[in-house]
Sphingolipid delta(4)-desaturase
Amino acid sequence: MATSTAIEANTSTIEKHLDGADNQDWLWTFQEEPHRTRRMQIIKAHPEVTKLCGPEPLTKWVVLLVVSIQLGAAYFLRNTPFFSWTFFLTSYIVGATASQNLFLAIHEISHNLAFRKPLYNRMLAMVANLPIGIPYSASFRPYHLIHHKAMGVEGLDTDLPTKIEAILLNSVAGKTFFCTFQILFYALRPMAVLQLPFTMTHFWNVVVQVVFDIILVKYITGWQGLIYFIFSDFLAGSLHPLAGHFISEHYVFDEDAKPSPRSNPSEIAAPETFSYYGPLNFFTYNVGLHNEHHDFPAVPWTRLYKLREIASEFYDPLPVCDSWPLTIPRFIFHSKRGLWGRVKREDKKKAPIDVDKED
């Protein structure tokens, strides 16, 4: 079982990576990612946690509610100029919050946590995708599941920044640019790093989205509605309070635990995922409970706090993020933080990953 003393002992070995010239490299480790190990330990100590796994029926109703809110807002703004305070504030306060919620609904549904049948989950993901305006739910799922199964593995985990990003954006101005346009990096990087096949699910995602967009523009809101959807997407992944979760989840800050680069099976893997337990989880399917989610991706959003309560001795010692809104300025202005602050490991398995096979 992980203890704070063990973590502290393990983390002092690569403090140098965040100082001086050594700041120009990733935080490399030979250790296996910590989530599978901790999952096995928790199941051994608390076998009842497996009863928390399974679909959450509430998810589909939340999706339908937020989709309706976005459609209503788009209709409200149909005659409102883009360059107006009404359009901007509605997009920032309502639209970006709703878009982030729908991003994370698709994240939740990608784990088949809305229905038992995979097909129903794919269909609901496409519904959640509608007010996003751009078809992406089918593409998100395989990339995200690979992120879980190969966390930190260069060339597989597309959540990791590329080396060119880290080099070019290693300054206050660069990090500001990254945080402002983060949604574009998040959307385009996977296709540049790892090419995956185009499937029938992708095809139907595109067809459904294009048909919806045409109906929206031609019969309901005009172009203004689609512009509202896409602008909301941009703001949701830009300088927005909820966007802090993109950085807080896996970037290692200098006061956090650092992984050990040494291959020592007796060492406890230091944290490379960080949870947030604040009120903004209400809008984001509890994605802030990110350690809990990575440990048990089959546990839905409504039961993650129960998981943490049951296995509190495993989670209490771990470092946490205290604020998503403050994460962004801390990331930008602290000289020792940046895109290099990610844990990486080599691919030891060298084998194809089956995204539909549960761990």
